[in-house]
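worker-3 :: picked site-specific DNA-methyltransferase (adenine-specific)
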Amino acid sequence: MNQPESHLDKSRLNNLADEIWKSAIRLRGKFSAHDYQNVILPIVTIRRLECVLIRWREAKAEEIRSKRPKITDEDLEKLVKSLELNPQQSPGFSNSTTWTMRKVYEEDHTLLEKNFRAYLKGFSENIQDILDSFDYRAVIGKMVKNARLAPILNQYSILDIGPQSLSSLEMGYIYEELLRRFSEAHAEAAGDHFTPREVIRLMVELLQIPIPTRHTSIYDPACGTGGMLYVAKEHLLDKAKTDKEREAVDKFITLHGTELMAETYAIARSEALIRNETQTTIHWGNSLIPHVEGSKDPGDQFPESKHQFDYMLSNPPFGVTWGGKDGYQTEAEKLESTRYLAGMPSVGDGSLLFLQTILAKMKPAPKEGKTQQGGSKVAIIFNGSPLSNGDCGSGESEIRRWILENDWLDAIVMLPGDLFYNTGIYTYIWLLRNDRDAIGRKGRIMLIDARQQYEKEPKSFGSKRNRIVERHRAWIEDRYHNGWNRRKADDDVRFFTKDDFAFHKVEVVFWQTDENDEHAIITEPFPVSFTSGNVSKKQEFYDSEITFHIRVTSPKTETLHEFDITVGPEDKFLDAYKAEIKDRFGKEMKNFNSSTLNKLEPEVTYTHRHYTKDDEYIPVDPKRDPDKYIPEFLEREIEKPIIRWEDRQQLGYEILPNKYFYKYVEPPKADALLREFWKLEAKAEDLLKGLAEEVV
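worker-3 :: tokens ->
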């Protein structure tokens, strides 16, 4: 049952989500907010699986009775059950018992727990994996203890949520709306942002996955409930015009995903079974670390040494922490010399680890000018951090450099804000492919400003106040697909090269000037511990004469000594200081050394040129020599005497879409602002007058 997102009855879905949510609210006082989803999500999933089985049994019974009208009800039930338990005949899973949730509820309630556990135990092995991921058997004990098993079974055993009533697309909305509410109830930080189906649809269409004529693989390293994967296939089935094309989609498309959260993994796995996706592989694990068989923390079970994919799309968690005591930094760093060779991002944001994981699994690209199949295409959603976080030479900058120098970045689409359920931040779709040479896009990157392509949601879904509908998708797709044909920039589309995103980070020392625009000389307290080592650093920095004014008290006689020492860049300050101290302290300083110097704790001010050290970020000019345009830039921007400057060995890279699409808006004139102010004041006076009259 394939249903375009634009045709969904969201009022109906909201009502169903509300009905399910009310049952979670009734757990209050019996369960903590954190446990709501542990009770509700599994029972919803079990009921959806049960609806599939009931529907299959009814259809199979009708088929058998049409051929054998005289068969008894008892024999019919036995025959249907034998077919269900036959892997060649079943709908992909089975239950060896005759129980349903309704039958369990309608039996003796003193046997309720026993019968329900027997019912769950009767499911086939592939369902047991799902139940284990939910850890539902432990939850049942809590439900019984808190007298909640019976009412929960009563409510859900009559809920019509089978695939004939709710498509996978619709059920995805239900699951993710529930997950959003659960996370809000538990006050969880917004990090896992479930992707709205209209955004997934846009990503799929931007990838232009064709009706396959050969095996075509689709991968998501953070698949959540499987939405990216299942919508991708649904879109292809919608796109197919003939039975032959639909058969090709079912035959050649394989879906591959990894999910770390056990509950969402279980939902993704159950949806694969409900959809009868026999060519879908969903693993529970962390796709950012190597997999070790038998480990309690499974890793990436699609290693790039064995797995490469045609299309990859993902919405990895924003700002996920992968370091520290709660992270997996040690395990991730085992891939530092292979998958993550380009760099390791900061431990507070693993977004670019997901991107490197994806890029490591690309298929080899075709040679330039060749038309044979090959290469991989990627669509991934990020917030703004991966675009510009990290300074020159940092892990993030080096990863961006690696991507740009390999010419994999094809385009970035700037999306509207308030599209996601748990956050209102702006997001960006990165489109990457490694066949750009072969299709004539070498060295150019497209940026699309689609921030205005939205309409308001009729009813907000948490932070999701905006939505993308068909006309917005069509606008974005036209700018991307036809934009490469036109190769023409406009108000919403810009083209760049990698050099446009590169910058020099230059450390510059310049001489401040005083109020008379003369070279400034200042006297100030010595800012750090007064040691010969720190003095040497100041001599090196100022590379000119420095005068130290020193006030020091004799430890024995408490006599105050005050004197100046002037040194040049090459002078040995300690020798001069030692001579001054010995001359003034006499025998008391007979065994003078650096340790004694430190114990004197003098008061020190020093007079020096007023130098300032700063970092300047200078755009790259690929047509000119940096040794010429860097000093020109510094002279133009700083307008102070430049003492020296030093460029980093490596260029930095950042992408600043807001900067490239900035449009200056002239502020209103002063008289217009005044007129608006007086209008507001008059309105306020009227309101106050009305309030005063009401009081009287």
